[in-house]
Design a protein that fits this description.
alpha/beta, Rossmann fold, Alpha-Beta Plaits, six-stranded mixed beta sheet
Length: 429
């Protein structure tokens, strides 16, 4: 029943264009419409207002709110979605005037994350973000939550929890934060293990729905370890915003035999809610420990430059712009090369591919091989007992995958840096 009510929800979207805005309002509204569709709604109309400043009481002003009410009555609109974040007072005033459920962009994105979250950690992260967002807006939420049975903007913490006092919600926030700290400790142990394994890490970053998961799957199919291929570890792929939230980790090999790890991240979007960034901070920080970033972009998108800038801004906030970055223009099978326009200051190394069609993956993998700052090769070594100083050096510096003592010496399996590969070539078997 809930799915039926969501599919019938008729949405009017509202945007405000300010003099200082740098993002094109039409592009932003197109993205908002896509977000509404990802949440299960249908956009029946849109309203854009140009203002010098935001109205503190109604965001768009009382007169415009009354005008929107008339549109809603004429178009039989269920919900009005705003393209910006609203305060509790603005939510309450707009709902009283328009007499419809009011949802802002932040709540809409949180709502989509609530639908998509599948892992325990993902669900905790989304719930934490929702509670922190809703806590200062309880007054604005009370009215519509008490009369609606579901739909966009109401997923996650329900009416009963939001109707309790603030102390109860604050206690719940602390409980979730403690649970996430336990998860973070586990991730930190795994992260340290990866770092000390001497295997370089490649992180896929970029806007939502640009093909990161498809690219990860294709890299594993073509360059993955035998174990990865045999287990069929496919990442979920779907042509929709925020199709996947959980971070995936896969193992592959470069053409020179060097093993490496591939990790993807949560897709970005413009005006990504601050509470969501904070809640997913532990997951997003995986990017900090990568040796190389693949910035995947949708070459066929008319909002290409905005998407590139949004990702770069978030990477800047994460303080990882000093890492080597390859910009991967994906979906070239759907793009017109001549119409790809972007600001070159955000792009250095670049490659044009179609992950779906597996076009130019060989160029990409060669560029990855050339770009890793530290390069390793997986080798087997036999070090005679008489070379104790060499053995000590290897054991102290590297994470040994396998070691066996035999009559002729110590047999080792490890990933060795190319500089040491040349130095200890005589021991490699």
């Amino acid at each position: 029943m809930k799915g039926e009510s969501i599919s019938k929800e008729r949405i009017l979207i509202v945007g405000v264009e300010l003099d200082k805005d740098v993002i094109d309002i039409d592009d932003s509204m197109d993205e908002l419409e896509s977000l509404v569709e990802a949440a299960g709604g249908t956009v029946v109309s849109r309203v854009v207002q140009r203002r010098h400043s935001i109205d503190s009481a109604f965001f768009i002003g009382r007169g415009k709110a009354l005008e929107i009410k008339k549109y809603c009555d004429e178009l039989d609109v269920d919900t009005v979605v705003f393209n910006d974040e609203l305060s509790g007072a603005q939510l309450r005033n707009l709902e009283d005037t328009i007499e419809r459920k009011i949802v802002d962009r932040t709540n809409l994105i949180l709502d989509i994350f609530a639908i998509r979250a599948s892992s325990r950690e993902g669900k905790l992260q989304v719930k934490l973000a929702q509670l922190k967002y809703r806590l200062p807006r309880l007054v604005g939420f009370r009215k519509y939550l008490s009369r609606t049975g579901g739909g966009i903007g109401t997923r996650g913490p329900g009416e009963q929890k939001l109707e309790t006092d603030r102390r109860h919600i604050l206690r719940e926030i602390k409980n979730i934060e403690r649970a996430l700290k336990d998860v973070e400790r586990t991730r930190e142990v795994n992260r340290k293990r990866r770092i000390t394994s001497s295997i370089p890490i490649l992180a896929l970053v970029g806007y939502t729905n640009v093909g990161k998961s498809t690219l990860l799957n294709k890299l594993v199919e073509n360059y993955g370890d035998i174990e990865e291929k045999e287990e069929g570890k496919q990442v979920f792929v779907c042509d929709q915003l925020f199709a996947t939230l959980s971070t995936s980790l896969r193992r592959a090999k470069l053409p020179n035999g060097q093993p490496f790890l591939i990790t993807d991240t949560v897709g970005f979007v413009s005006k990504l809610p601050v509470h969501l960034v904070e809640a997913f901070k532990g997951t997003l920080e995986e990017v900090k420990y990568a040796d190389l970033l693949l910035h995947v972009v949708d070459a066929s998108s008319k909002n290409l430059n905005m998407q590139i800038k949004t990702t770069i801004d978030i990477l800047k906030d994460l303080e990882v712009l000093d890492k080597p970055i390859i910009t991967v223009f994906n979906k070239m099978d759907k793009a017109d090369f001549q119409s790809i326009i972007y600001d070159s200051k955000y792009v250095d190394k670049k490659v044009f591919i179609s992950a779906q069609k597996e076009e130019n993956l060989d160029q990409l993998i060669n560029m990855i091989q050339e770009s890793f700052p530290v390069k390793y090769r997986e080798v087997k070594m036999l070090i005679p007992y008489s070379y104790q100083s060499d053995l000590s050096y290897i054991l102290d510096r590297y994470n040994i995958l396998q070691m066996e003592h035999k009559e002729d010496g110590v047999h080792l399996s490890l990933n060795i840096a190319l500089e040491d590969y040349e130095r200890y070539k005589k021991f490699i078997v």
